[in-house]
Design goal:
Elements: H1 2-15, H2 86-95, H3 99-113, H4 117-130, H5 133-146, H6 151-163, H7 167-180, H8 185-197, H9 201-215, H10 219-232, H11 235-243, H12 253-265, H13 269-277, H14 288-297
Helix pairs in contact: 1-8, 1-10, 1-12, 2-3, 2-4, 3-4, 4-5, 5-6, 6-7, 7-8, 8-9, 9-10, 10-11, 10-12, 11-12, 12-13
């Protein structure tokens, strides 16, 4: 069953960034030296030197994966105005892929916010959303230069390492972010997914348990929690977790395959088969191998 339960983890570790992009050709790697051009010679305004709003600390159930890059959650985009929250408005434009408008607002905010790590973090997120990963790295590092303990940007650097396939560096970044900001859910969640990926089950379970009361009801989290219990052999707890979910979620292979495994391991082969037969695989050709493997356990000839 190890091969099958790994399915969620491999997908979930990518889903921790809902807008992941491929490296642009010719961009190089994250370890390249990047120079920073200092604009301190420009005229000064009264500056902001610390975040006013920290969206990163506002995660709620259903917003975890969308907030991983520390940009404003999608559910709040419509309520942000340039007048009431200029920085949030700029980033929400980027999130909607209205980059011309977003970067124009960012330029207007430079003089007042150039010593504000939240500003540079959000500039980095705009470039990330635009698909310019090395520029994102440049601005994330600028934010960290201003505040090396600013958890959102440490987490975002971890996501970039993750997308480069540098899991060990990503792990270090998520650990540092979670230790720096004890109440931030996103790096703790990302950390738990890496531990699941490498079958460090006790560590993953421990971190997920810390989030249990705060993220109950989030489908992605509940799936991770169920997988952790599967790997620990807590099959009834895994089944109980899937019982609490809307059955429509089982049509998604990322959930349904693991749910079917949970019922199978708990001794309910009939329910496992019903879930298996309703999984919609048309849009997920890359998962057909895992689907067939599950079918062989259920006695399916496909």
């Amino acid at each position: 069953m190890k091969k099958l339960t790994l399915l969620f983890v491999l997908l979930g570790i990518v889903s921790c960034s809902s807008t992941s992009t491929k490296s642009q050709q010719g961009e190089g790697t994250l370890d390249d030296d990047l120079a920073w051009v200092n604009n301190d010679d420009f005229s000064e305004e009264v500056g902001v030197e610390k975040p006013v709003n920290d969206y990163y600390g506002e995660s709620k159930p259903g917003e975890v994966s969308r907030e991983t890059m520390a940009v404003i959650p999608q559910a709040k985009i419509a309520n942000v105005s340039f007048e009431s929250d200029p920085l949030g408005s700029a980033v929400s434009d980027c999130y909607r892929k209205e980059f011309e408008s977003g970067f124009k607002k960012i330029d207007q905010l430079y003089r007042r916010n150039k010593r504000n790590p939240a500003y540079w973090n959000q500039v980095g997120s705009c470039y990330y959303l635009k698909g310019e990963k090395l520029k994102a790295l440049l601005y994330y590092n600028k934010a960290r230069d201003l505040d090396e303990k600013y958890a959102p940007v440490i987490n975002n650097l971890g996501v970039l390492y993750l997308l480069e396939g540098k899991d060990q560096k990503a792990l270090g970044a998520f650990k540092k972010a979670s230790e720096t900001s004890k109440f931030s859910m996103v790096p703790i969640y990302n950390l738990s997914l890496i531990y699941l990926k490498y079958y460090m089950v006790n560590d993953a379970y421990s971190y997920l348990a810390k989030l249990r009361g705060r993220l109950s009801g989030d489908v992605e989290f509940e799936n991770a929690w169920a997988v952790a219990n599967l790997l620990k052999g807590n099959f009834n707890e895994a089944v109980s977790t899937y019982e609490s979910m809307d059955s429509d979620q089982f049509q998604n292979p990322q959930v349904g395959i693991n749910a079917s495994i949970a019922y199978l391991k708990a001794g309910d082969k009939s329910k496992a088969r019903r879930i298996y037969e309703n999984i919609e695989m048309d849009k997920y050709p890359e998962l057909k191998g895992s689907y067939r493997d599950l079918g062989s356990y259920l006695g399916d000839g496909k």
